[in-house]
Amino acid sequence: MKRLRPFAHTIFAEMTALATTHDAVNLGQGFPDTDGPAGMLEAARKAIASGLNQYPPGPGMPVLRQAVARDRAARFGTEYDPGSEILVTVGATEAVSAAMLGLVEPGSEVVLIEPYYDSYAAAVALAGGIRKSVPLVADGDGFALDLDALRAAVTPATRMIVVNSPHNPTGTVFTDAELEAVADVARERDLLVLTDEVYEHLVFDGGHHTPIATLPGMFERTVTVSSAAKTFNATGWKTGWACGPAPLIDAVRTAKQFMSFVGAAPFQPAVAYALDNEQQWVLDLRDSLQRKRDTLAAALRHAGFGVKKSQGTYFVCADIAPLGFDDADSFCRALPERIGVVGVPVDAFVDHPEHWKTLVRFAFCKQDDVLAEAATRLTALR
Ligand code: PMP
Ligand code: GLN
C-alpha cells in the first residue's frame, strides 16, 4: 500500500542483517546484551509457574498499573488513576501507534522533532495523518530545539506534537526551558502532546529528566509513554504503558484493543515488582551506561570522528566529516565489511537529509569487552 511503502524495512533490521553477514560488532540496533535485575526475572518465572498464563485484563493487570502510578507519583508528583489513566501496552511502540490511531484524524498534522525514532513516522502514516518535521539545530557539540521553526510548523490542521526526551538518536536531553517552550505552543494552539520517555532513567552527568506532563496546563493534553525495555534491560518483554487523562487514555485503549487486545501476562507482575523494588539497580545501570558512553566516545574520537554530546539514552552520534567522508548512509553500509563495526546513519530518522548527511549513531549499551573490540576495530579507520 502506498501509505506504508516507505516503511518496508526498518534501518535496524537492515543493519542487524549486515552485522550478522560480516560478523561485525553491532552498535547499530539499541538493545543491551545483559539481563535485567534477577528479582524481576524470578518474578516472571514465578508468574508462569503460578498459572498467570491467560489473557490479562484489557487495560493491563492492576498490579502493574498501580506500580506505574506509584512510580510516577513518587518521582514526579503526578497522580494517575490506575483504573482509568494508565494503559499497559505491547512496548512503547504499541503505545505510540495506538495513541496516533486513537487521537489523530486522517488528514490532521502531527509535528515531529527531527531526527525522530523511526516508528513515529510510520505511526502517523498508519493513522492517515500528515507529518511535519522540525529539525534540531546544532548547539555547540550538541543539539537544541529550533523554537521558531516549531512555531512555524504548527498550522490550524495540527493535532499533536511528539516529544522524545532523552532523545533517540542524538542523546539530547531537552532543557526545562525547551520543554516549557513546547508546552507554551501546545497550550496556545490547543494541541495534544505525545511524549516518549523510554530513556527517562538514563540521564547522565547529574542531569535530570522532566516529564512535559508535569508542566502547568499540560497534564490534560499529554499522553506519556514509557516501557520496561530500557529501564530494566528487557527489550524482548515488550511491556510498556501510556499514562494520561482518562479521555485520552480511553481513546488510546480503543485503538490498542484491536491491535493486540492485551500484552503478555507473566511479564506484567514482574515489571511491577521491578518498578517497586529495583530503583537502585536502575541507578547503577545509568552509572554504568555513563561510563560506557565515555569509553565509546573516547574510542570514536581516537578513530578520528567528531563526537557529539550525549546526555542520555544508549546512543552517541559521531560526525564522519573529519575522517574525509560525506555520506553517512554509504559509510554505514560499507563499515561492517570494511572494519567489522555497525552504526546507523542518522539520516534514516529524518525528512531533511541535507541537515544530517555526515552523522552516525552508535549504541554503547554493550558489555565492556564488546566496546573494547569495537574500539580496536575502529582504529583501522585512522
Ligand atoms: N521509543 C524510543 C525512543 C526507542 O528508542 C524505542 C526502542 N526501544 C522505543 C520507543 C520502543 O520501545 P519498546 O521496545 O518498549 O516498544
Ligand atoms: N530502540 C532501538 C533503537 O533505536 C531498537 C529499535 C528496533 O529495533 N526497532 O535502536
From TrEMBL:
Residues 23-378 form the Aminotransferase class I/classII large domain. The keyword Transferase applies. This is Aminotransferase. SUPFAM superfamilies: PLP-dependent transferases. GO terms for molecular function: kynurenine-oxoglutarate transaminase activity; pyridoxal phosphate binding. Its cofactor is pyridoxal 5'-phosphate. It comes from the Bacteria. It comes from Rhodococcoides trifolii. One of its GO terms (cellular component) is cytoplasm.
